[in-house]
């Protein structure tokens, strides 16, 4: 795939990612602050909200998938689950061992980590076979 196309995908993925992050952050922080929910459930629900947005926009706009959504949905979810588990492990580790006592920063660090590994997984695995 030409470098220009990859760069454009990265830019689009970043734009979609910003909207995913905003959706996830708003949901997580509202659940933590307003609903008094614990980190784990709030984090999962926030990521699911971002996941729905991500699948729709990345499939159609970023990667311009021509494959049926049914063929890309399961790999997309599988990549999400794997990347989410890695992110969640990092979050729990940061909450336990970080010198920062502000768990909100730890969520942001986890989100950045998730974004990088999830882009690579979707580019090369979920939508990679279409090239």
From TrEMBL:
Main location (coarse class): membrane
InterPro entries membership: GtrA_CellWall_Glycosyl (IPR051401), GtrA_DPMS_TM (IPR007267)
GO CC term (a single one): plasma membrane
Subcellular localization, as worded in the UniProt entry: Membrane
Stretches that traverse the bilayer: 12-32, 44-61, 73-92, 104-121
GO biological process, alphabetically ordered: polysaccharide biosynthetic process
Pfam families: GtrA_DPMS_TM (PF04138)
Family: Belongs to the GtrA family.
Name the UniProt record assigns to this protein: Sugar translocase
Species: Porphyromonas gulae
């Amino acid at each position: 795939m030409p470098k220009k196309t990859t760069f454009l995908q990265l830019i689009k993925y970043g734009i979609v990612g910003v909207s995913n992050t905003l959706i996830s952050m708003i949901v997580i922080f509202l659940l933590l602050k307003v609903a008094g929910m614990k980190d784990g459930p709030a984090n999962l629900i926030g990521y699911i909200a971002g996941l729905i947005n991500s699948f729709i926009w990345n499939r159609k706009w970023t990667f311009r998938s021509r494959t049926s959504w049914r063929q890309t949905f399961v790999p997309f979810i599988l990549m999400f689950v794997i990347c989410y588990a890695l992110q969640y492990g990092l979050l729990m580790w940061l909450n336990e061992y970080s010198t920062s006592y502000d768990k909100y920063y730890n969520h942001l660090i986890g989100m950045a980590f998730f974004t990088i590994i999830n882009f690579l997984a979707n580019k090369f695995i979920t939508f990679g076979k279409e090239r």
